[in-house]
Amino acid sequence: MEFLLDFLGTDYIALFIIIGIGIFLGGIKIKGVSFDSSAVIFVAIFYGYWLNIQGVDFKLPEIIQKIGLLLFIFTIGMQAGPSFFEVFKSQGAKLIILAVLSVVIGTITTALLSIGFDVDYKISVGLLTGALTSTPGLAAAIEASNSPLASIGYGIAYPFGVIGVILFVKLSPKLFGAKISKEEENYVREAQSKIPEVTNRNFEITNDNIEGRTIKDLDIRMMTKANISRIMSPNTMSVAPTAEAVLHKGDVVKAVGTEEALKRVEVLLGHSTEVEIPASGLMEIKWYVVSRRNVVNKSLKELNVKRNFKATVTRVRRAGIDLSARPTLKLRYGDRLLISSSKGNVAALSHILGDSMKEVETTSFLPVALGCVVGLLLGAIEIPLPGGSSFSLGITGGVLIAALVLSRIGKTGPIIWNLPVVGNQILRQFGLLLFLTPVGLAAGSKIAPTINEYGLNLFGIGAIITLVPMIIVVIIGRLIFKVNFLSLLGALTGGMTSTPGLTAVDSMTSTEGPQVAYATVYPFALVTIIICAQILGSL
């Protein structure tokens, strides 16, 4: 038995045992519900509890949890960053209101329960921060209350704060009648509706005023916001357009753009036609991938492929969405460009753009390392508050904001702030497992002594503080704000500052909706928790 305890109490052995069993159990579905990677935390809690009752005081080195947290939060920010600001403009206000509301409701619930059960506010403020799993909130509570009782309350409420959020987000689709597949479809449709679909159509030139004029004279791109990708004159093969190409009545052109842009083309040139433009042996329409660093952040106007290569960029595909090839559109690493050009210019275009999927899909750890350093510096900045106190974003807030901003910037000097999809997923999963395991072990080791010393009343109060805000926020977000359910759950976990909760939501969908919502609301929720903890702790 002693050998077994020594073996199971070895840190690296315990780490991999917990991860292995957790992943296995997480794959088991009961009535369509599974915990996926989140099951690791339940295994860790049981593991820590079992070792504790065996007399083994065991915990993993703190650096494992911090490294896991850094990787998980940074990769979430990198993935969500490109969409973050667009979502903030469209529905960010609603998400932020819901997240702040969850903190305020939690604070009011805590105050009422403290009065009803005659609980010292110094313990109650710890229950609040534990129920919301906010370590920065706990720091603010200890400073405001000047008492160790806050940390005791935190330890009591934290286990259910972790488990309760996971259980709630996993069960909430069934409780509130939401179908995840339908919510995913709605999310994708809403995201795409904000970016008009790019399509193409052929037009026959019937406008007498067009006769003999060049594309440059007409300034078609400026007039219509569409691109001309091919031209076919009667009885001739199609050619790639140039600025000097002369248009004649009866010519058929292929235009690429949004539906509104194509309507303007019809007004300018003539009616649409079903006449097909056959491919010419002299031209090539090809997708190119942006993999050369010196092209990133350059606009299509700066690239000027029409003048330099007698080519036309007809559309840009980014993250699976087709964008209109506007001159002001800045290129990002990994963008795919559909270009119509003469065959002789294909090699030159490939050279200037890079056109290497191997480069794009190769994961470099440099942006992760430097990005985390930037985030840690940002999180360490102390922001003064009235009354002489201060707060900081901490590890989570600093790294998350750094990842969001850097992924939005795209490039700084020679550094490309990009992670390929596969690399991002691997690092995120690895960071998640490293984070969940020590969190669960710490919670498990506290369960027995806490129950023996304080009984079950405080556990019940902590559970209520966790559940009441979530229930009210989901009802408001679903019935009043009409927020997509996946984004709602992401905002909810952000409001509860629950990284394990976000993990549970993230495992339920292949869209980035929950991550974007979490990233949108987390900084606001963090500041609100700190302020509420300071107010409650000072009573």
TrEMBL record:
It is found in: Cell membrane. GO terms for molecular function: monoatomic cation transmembrane transporter activity. Keywords: Cell membrane, Membrane, Transmembrane, Transmembrane helix, Transport. One of its GO terms (biological process) is potassium ion transport. It is a multi-pass membrane protein. It comes from the Bacteria. Residues 185-271, 273-355 form the RCK C-terminal domain. Belongs to the AAE transporter (TC 2.A.81) family. This is Permease.
